[in-house]
Write a structure and sequence with these properties.
The chain is of the alpha/beta class. The chain contains 14 helices and ten strands. It has a single domain, classed as Rossmann fold (3-Layer(aba) Sandwich). Helix content is 42%, strand content 14%. The longest helix has 37 residues.
Length: 367
């Protein structure tokens, strides 16, 4: 058979592949949207405020008011980690650090940085970096909470990147407005991160051809959520240990707590992992060196088997901080926990309320 006779069949085959590709893409989108709606928490939030930063982006603040007798202590601002959103710290009544604090009378505010919320995600994502969060989103969040509550200061609880932002704000940037600080799984050094290198390479895969301005980690996590369960091998679930969750809880973690990430933010982490640095994009501000300027009372928490924020890389912040009152806590079997703790287990594991949240509450209850 000559090539001329084969050409129509080749064209037909390519057309069929194109149709199948489109159908597969549509099916994938419908699959993710269905499970995102099904796995989304019921809410239970008292107030949602969308506020604008000086550069025109949207930061979303979600409030959970005190349950019972209000505390005389200041409001608590809780900030999520990389590729996460407000639900990471308020997933459900059983796994909600924010609600545990509210039950003790604290006024809690959950920050959703630009790109973590669907609100204005496209415009925000195009220029967002860690430096952008630090320059605009953090000061805007602090100012909004203080204005809404008439408080001079707040307590800050940061998970992963949320703690890193607090280190940079209070240290290198000489920011103010925080009374006491808790960081959970927040690294300031990036040695020994072979698997994380693969994760932070994602923006370079998706953005060079203009396919997207975000790295679709939230989309991928939601798509995988229905297949998750405590039976999964630990080697396949870097960042959490499946036996810390029942099937429903694990699917909700993946389906509700994750968000897509602005590519510029992922590139910040890629640079730090490659260089073992923690500095601004232009190299002029050394965030790690600035930690020595932090003087507020500081509680640093790490998971003993954290594979995304290795314990020594988290502990270094405790050593560097200039705080007169500071404590490092490694949660795991050696310190009395029921099991080893990976990254997400610290805020969403079944035993986290007793083995992690209790320490946070105690630290923030102090004068």
């Amino acid at each position: 058979m000559t090539f001329d006779r084969l050409l129509p069949w080749i064209a037909l085959g390519l057309a069929a592949l194109a149709v199948l590709g489109v159908l597969a893409a549509v099916a994938a989108v419908l699959w993710v949207r269905f499970w995102r709606r099904r796995l989304s928490p019921d809410g239970g939030f008292d107030e949602v405020i969308e506020t604008r930063t000086r550069d025109g982006a949207t930061v979303v603040l979600t409030r959970i008011r005190p349950r019972g007798e209000p505390s005389r202590r200041p409001p608590v601002v809780l900030c999520h980690g990389l590729a996460m959103n407000r639900h990471a710290l308020a997933l459900d009544p059983e796994r909600s650090l924010a609600r545990a604090l509210a039950a003790r009378g604290r006024d809690c505010w959950l920050v959703e940085l630009r790109g973590a919320s669907p609100t204005g995600v496209r415009g925000a994502a195009r220029a967002a970096t860690f430096d952008t969060y630090l320059e605009h989103d953090v000061p805007t969040a602090l100012a909004t909470v203080r204005a809404a509550t008439d408080a001079d200061v707040v307590d800050w609880v940061g998970f992963s990147m949320g703690g890193m932002l607090a280190y940079a704000h209070l240290g290198a940037m000489r920011g103010e407005g925080v009374r006491r600080l808790v960081t959970i799984g927040s690294p300031v050094r990036f040695t020994g991160y072979p698997a994380t290198r693969a994760m932070v390479a994602a923006p370079y895969v998706f953005t060079p051809f203009g396919l997207n301005v975000t790295t679709p980690l939230g989309w991928l996590a939601t798509g995988a959520a229905p297949l998750a369960g405590p039976w999964l091998p630990v080697k396949l679930t870097r960042g959490l240990r499946p036996h810390h969750y029942d099937a429903v809880a694990l699917r909700r973690v993946l389906g509700a707590a994750f968000s897509d990430v602005p590519a510029g933010v992922m590139k910040s982490f890629a640079r730090w992992v490659h260089d073992d640095s923690f500095a601004s994009a232009d190299g002029r501000v050394d965030y790690r060196a600035g930690i020595a300027r932090i003087t507020v009372p500081l509680l640093v928490i790490a998971g003993d088997r954290d594979r995304l924020a290795l314990p020594p890389c988290v502990k270094e912040a405790h050593a560097l901080a200039g705080s007169a009152e500071k404590r490092f806590l490694e949660v795991g079997t050696a310190t009395g926990a029921h099991a080893h703790y990976d990254h997400l287990d610290l805020i969403m594991g079944t035993k986290a309320p007793d083995e992690v949240f209790a320490h946070v509450i105690d630290w923030l209850e102090r004068d």
